[in-house]
Prior knowledge:
Two copies of one chain form a homodimer. The first copy, chain A, contains twelve helices and ten strands.
Amino acid sequence: MYPTHVQIKxxxxxxxxxxxxxxxxxxxKVRLIDRLSDTGLRYIEVSSFVNPKWIPQLADxxxxxxxxxxxxxxxxxxLVPNMQGLERALAVxxxxxxxxxxxxxxxxxxxxxxxxxxxxxxxxPVIEEALRAGKTVRGYISTVIACPIDGPTKPEQVRAVADxxxxxxxxxxxxxxxxxxxxxxxxxxxxxxxxQHFDRDSLAMHFHDTRGTxxxxxxxxxxxxxxxxxxxxxxxxxxxxxxxxxxxxxxxDLLYLLHGMGIETGVDLHKVQQAALSMxxxxxxxxxxxxxxxxxxxxx
Amino acid sequence: MYPTHVQIKxxxxxxxxxxxxxxxxxxxKVRLIDRLSDTGLRYIEVSSFVNPKWIPQLADxxxxxxxxxxxxxxxxxxLVPNMQGLERALAVxxxxxxxxxxxxxxxxxxxxxxxxxxxxxxxxPVIEEALRAGKTVRGYISTVIACPIDGPTKPEQVRAVADxxxxxxxxxxxxxxxxxxxxxxxxxxxxxxxxQHFDRDSLAMHFHDTRGTxxxxxxxxxxxxxxxxxxxxxxxxxxxxxxxxxxxxxxxDLLYLLHGMGIETGVDLHKVQQAALSMxxxxxxxxxxxxxxxxxxxxx
Lengths: 300, 300
């Protein structure tokens, strides 16, 4: 009934740290990523090559990629918004690039200042050039359940954007409940629709845990045969343009659920918990992570 | 597929406040319960008539019951461990009493200092006397998924205790994942077993959210036709005798999930959120509640 194996895509160093008010030192980012490379995670999104004016927290993307210790069996990915970003990412040998847009017009406009229709012509050359350079491309679609501006998103809206992104050459799409409002019945409706059109192995789910429903939504996704999930060490992350958005589901909480359900991930929960606690010390604030709190309690 | 209506049993004033280090003033408890009576909740567990030496935080159980404003359509319940407790509870006109024990020997011994077999003869006269006084009796079974001392609990252990409690005259059993370790596959195994033997309307689920799995476990329970759930305003609560136990699932988080899934509860989420924020101010510490955090964010 459930998949036997799930791949976790760690997005904390990008989606998490881009939302921290403070700039985390490059050396601290490198230390975190090197630590994550040693947990069994096979996919780490390390940074974003957006204009540093937009997200100064990740202005050191190139330095981070250049300085981390690259493990052979780990894919090190980064976000790129446009050709300039792609060129910077390719120059430091990124393994995979991710492009991003929204399923809803309101969020797409507020996040990248373009309509959905205007976005594809910008992404087309980025995807083409990345593929020419021998890289795979991942596509993020935000606000797949609801939009902070437009309200509920229809599954058909998500499908239309996904259709176009696959056509442009992305090999996988990450479906984001950006503001963390989704419940299992909505995830069911979305995936019931999408899995009729797309290979389920080409879909990943990206849940924010703003209202505590992320793990219930993960279980619903597993029922639909989804085997790829984005998560963030310590539950870091959010979206600076979506009010009320709190962090991604914590990697360690996701691991606890999956392992408890007998689903393999290849990731060492204890090592991830310890890495989360090191982030808590660095950021000097409590994490949105149940398993980090449990680990702290056991040490006390 | 899911039930259309669910009844929420609010246990915050008892299970929550018994785990606060500080004694909450009687007037503040009364104010909280009166506020909860105005949210649409139809069942509130207001206190516990255990020996005040064990749980000094609830030493004022009789005063609380005497001072609250009783709404006709709300059941005001309390925990009773023995005949002395029952007599105190009946003297102030409690509507329903709850008895409690564990599915595992280790937790039963550490919590009530008796073996499981030794516990029934203590509960028998309590249940009989309560029934004679015209009251219904609820039975709590703790550690239904796992025990902090004995490890995993078998569904057959839970069934054996439930069988005996029903035989003694309880009308409903609340099944507690006391240390909050359960995942949906375990809840599935437990309820698959129990619903073969017991009417599902006689079972309630009581999840702690220690590892973030409570709402996923609620959804699994709904799939088994369970329509009664215990929860705690602001996610207060735990178990003083079970290491690592953090709070019950927050009432407001449970409401958000259920309402989002189109399941009616009759409870006003906004009023519950506001009551939770008032508790946060009173306790001067952040709550284990996602929806309280969302409400705070919206006010900011």
